[in-house]
Design goal:
By secondary structure, the chain is an all-alpha fold. Helix content is 80%, strand content 0%. The protein contains seven helices and no strands. The longest helix has 30 residues, at 75-104. It is elongated, with a radius of gyration of 21 Å. The N and C termini lie close together (11 Å).
Length: 158
């Protein structure tokens, strides 16, 4: 649990600060976020990065804070909030992509090449096999094994 805090506290704090622009409030909500996360860690299903899950908790706590203090989000801020959420999703998706690409560099060359050709090149397994001088089944197996290795590493990191 301490490791979870150490790896994600800055991310959650800056996420909250970007919403509230108040150092003290961001610090308080960051602490509350980790308390809630510790209390409900069994609900974390691993379908997203741990930092994404924590930022969702933080966002809900911030909106609860606004409601408790009788603050409504003005319509223009609501539109900005929706735009921010879209931007956040794009940033988090890009961060996840960077993590996956870093992990891909650790795969054997041929396996990495199969994954690149399949995902980025959008090639069929038959085409990949032809390009690499192997069979379609070989390409399929290497893609599957590489994907499994990446998924295992992702679960260990979180």
């Amino acid at each position: 649990m301490d490791e979870m805090y150490r790896q994600n506290a800055k991310i959650v704090y800056y996420f909250l600060y970007s919403w509230c622009h108040n150092v003290q409030l961001a610090e308080d909500l960051t602490q509350e976020t980790f308390l809630k996360a510790y209390q409900s860690i069994e609900r974390y299903d691993g379908s997203c990065k741990l930092s994404v899950w924590l930022c969702q908790i933080a966002k809900h706590l911030y909106f609860q804070y606004l409601q408790k203090n009788g603050r409504e989000i003005p319509a223009e801020l609501e539109e900005e909030r929706i735009a921010k959420e879209d931007t956040e999703k794009q940033v988090l998706t890009k961060l996840e992509l960077i993590d996956v690409l870093k992990e891909m560099q650790k795969l054997p060359d041929k396996m990495r090449e199969v994954i690149y050709l399949r995902i980025i090149g959008e090639l069929s397994f038959r085409e990949i096999g032809e390009i690499l001088g192997k069979t379609e089944n070989w390409a399929r197996v290497n893609f599957y094994r590489g994907k499994e290795q990446l998924l295992k590493r992702r679960k260990w990191d979180e």
